[in-house]
């Protein structure tokens, strides 16, 4: 009997399709075994999607509805309640790969596909309160630690910003880049990281419009504004309106627009600047920032998305290509960009052939190129 579906449970609860031909097959390759109502799954059945997703359980009018087990293409598996095609009610989602915070499953109450974790909400609220009380002292301490310019040389200063705290990849990128620049480019004592993350509210100043502005003003006051160079690295999500997202758990923060950053840098009167923005649609920063004394690098064209913004990742596609793969063996930021551009293009073609290429951008004035050359030649080991 076709309704007697075979469930083969291995170490991770693998679902196996029933024998015999399916009762319904769709043009996209999806196959269904079970009862139908007006040619839609209705009752208890089994569905095998074209992308590897499988579901065994209750259907109502073509949607997952009732109790069931779903295996997702990435290996995650959910067992529990469904309503109108979404996780609903009591259920357990087991992750094929542990999350960034070490969790291997979420078990409890689900609402419209989202896990209602009471403990999580309490932690988020506590994080907000902790952040609000601690931010002034954290930011003041970080700003006070910035050292003045060392006379007789071109000093490089680094401001690194992790914008969206909902995914840890941005924090990891910023921490890598700060460590890399401190080690290889002499920014120790002249670097500052502003981080939105669920893991650093007690230890690092947050990235907000206020803290970014304060950081730029403080760096400008400590550096030789006519000789030293400021490198601004920003990584986050970006919108079609080119706003760089600033987001902390349970907080609503306004993002940083290209004109905001352009104004802050102009008011600082810092002459030499390199700005690298890694975000979707980040090419929107090029026009507002470009000048003879500024180099602007972006992970995507103004009308394109970038890739790799997953919570479990250590880098975005462009961040890995530029800072980890290209920069260590390059003799300039321009050379590192050219290498990174090729690396990203090859990776996108291989892994995301149906997506539009991100098309990273670079805009560099002749004057900043010469100043960077003078600085680069003065850095030991480069």
Can you walk me through this structure?
The protein has helices at 118-144, 169-184, 209-222, 258-268, 286-289, 317-326, 333-351, 366-378, and strands at 24-25, 31-33, 36-37, 40-41, 43-48, 54-60, 63-71, 77-83, 86-94, 105-111, 114-115, 156-162, 191-195, 229-235, 272-278, 294-298, 361-364. It is α+β, with helices and mostly antiparallel strands. The protein folds into 2 domains: 24-116, Single Sheet (Histone H3 K4-specific methyltransferase SET7/9 N-terminal domain); 138-378, Rossmann fold, CATH 3.40.50.1460. A hairpin with a 2-residue loop joins strand 10 (105-111) and strand 11. Helix 3 (209-222) packs parallel to helix 4 and helix 6 (317-326) packs across helix 7.
Helices and strands, with pairings:
Elements: E1 24-25, E2 31-33, E3 36-37, E4 40-41, E5 43-48, E6 54-60, E7 63-71, E8 77-83, E9 86-94, E10 105-111, E11 114-115, H1 118-144, E12 156-162, H2 169-184, E13 191-195, H3 209-222, E14 229-235, H4 258-268, E15 272-278, H5 286-289, E16 294-298, H6 317-326, H7 333-351, E17 361-364, H8 366-378
Parallel strand pairs: 12-13, 12-14, 14-15, 15-16
Antiparallel strand pairs: 1-2, 2-5, 3-4, 5-6, 6-7, 7-8, 8-9, 9-10, 10-11, 16-17
